Amino acid sequence: MNQTFTVTGMTCGHCERAVKNAVLELDPQAQVSIDRATNRVDVDSTQAREALATAIAEEGYVVAD
Protein backbone atom coordinates (compact mmCIF):
# COMPACT_ATOMS: atom_id res chain seq x y z
CA MET A 1 0.00 0.00 0.00
CA ASN A 2 1.33 3.43 -0.97
CA GLN A 3 1.42 6.01 1.79
CA THR A 4 2.70 9.57 1.80
CA PHE A 5 4.11 11.29 4.88
CA THR A 6 5.16 14.88 5.47
CA VAL A 7 8.38 14.63 7.46
CA THR A 8 10.11 17.76 8.73
CA GLY A 9 13.62 18.00 10.06
CA MET A 10 15.40 16.30 7.15
CA THR A 11 18.22 18.66 6.23
CA CYS A 12 20.81 16.45 4.50
CA GLY A 13 21.50 13.13 2.84
CA HIS A 14 22.25 11.55 6.20
CA CYS A 15 18.75 12.50 7.36
CA GLU A 16 17.23 10.91 4.26
CA ARG A 17 19.17 7.69 4.88
CA ALA A 18 18.06 7.65 8.53
CA VAL A 19 14.40 7.92 7.52
CA LYS A 20 14.76 5.31 4.78
CA ASN A 21 16.60 2.90 7.09
CA ALA A 22 13.96 3.33 9.81
CA VAL A 23 11.28 2.23 7.35
CA LEU A 24 13.39 -0.63 5.99
CA GLU A 25 14.07 -1.94 9.51
CA LEU A 26 10.32 -2.27 9.96
CA ASP A 27 9.70 -3.64 6.45
CA PRO A 28 12.79 -4.76 4.48
CA GLN A 29 10.65 -5.10 1.33
CA ALA A 30 9.35 -1.51 1.46
CA GLN A 31 10.00 0.92 -1.37
CA VAL A 32 10.91 4.37 -0.07
CA SER A 33 11.13 7.61 -2.06
CA ILE A 34 12.16 10.85 -0.37
CA ASP A 35 11.94 14.43 -1.63
CA ARG A 36 13.70 16.48 1.04
CA ALA A 37 12.86 19.79 -0.66
CA THR A 38 9.13 19.20 -0.15
CA ASN A 39 9.44 17.13 3.07
CA ARG A 40 7.68 14.30 1.28
CA VAL A 41 8.30 10.63 2.03
CA ASP A 42 6.47 8.07 -0.10
CA VAL A 43 6.40 4.52 1.22
CA ASP A 44 5.06 1.41 -0.45
CA SER A 45 4.74 -1.08 2.40
CA THR A 46 2.41 -3.63 3.93
CA GLN A 47 2.99 -2.13 7.39
CA ALA A 48 0.39 0.01 9.12
CA ARG A 49 0.68 3.77 8.67
CA GLU A 50 1.00 4.31 12.42
CA ALA A 51 3.90 1.86 12.67
CA LEU A 52 5.76 3.56 9.82
CA ALA A 53 5.17 7.02 11.30
CA THR A 54 6.41 5.84 14.68
CA ALA A 55 9.56 4.35 13.17
CA ILE A 56 10.35 7.65 11.43
CA ALA A 57 9.55 9.71 14.55
CA GLU A 58 11.83 7.53 16.66
CA GLU A 59 14.70 8.74 14.47
CA GLY A 60 13.95 12.29 15.65
CA TYR A 61 11.84 13.64 12.78
CA VAL A 62 8.39 15.18 12.94
CA VAL A 63 5.74 13.28 10.99
CA ALA A 64 2.61 15.25 10.10
CA ASP A 65 -0.71 13.56 9.32
Please characterize this protein's 3D structure:
This protein has a single domain, classed as Alpha-Beta Plaits. The protein is built from two helices and four strands; from the N terminus they run E-H-E-E-H-E. Helix 1 (13-26) crosses helix 2 (49-57). It is globular, with a radius of gyration of 10 Å. It has helices at 13-26, 49-57; strands spanning 2-8, 31-35, 40-44, 62-64. A four-stranded antiparallel sheet has the order 2-3-1-4, with helices on one face.
Summarize the structure.
The chain has 65 residues and is α+β, with helices and mostly antiparallel strands. It has helices at 13-26, 49-57, and strands at 2-8, 31-35, 40-44, 62-64. The radius of gyration is 10 Å and the shape is globular.
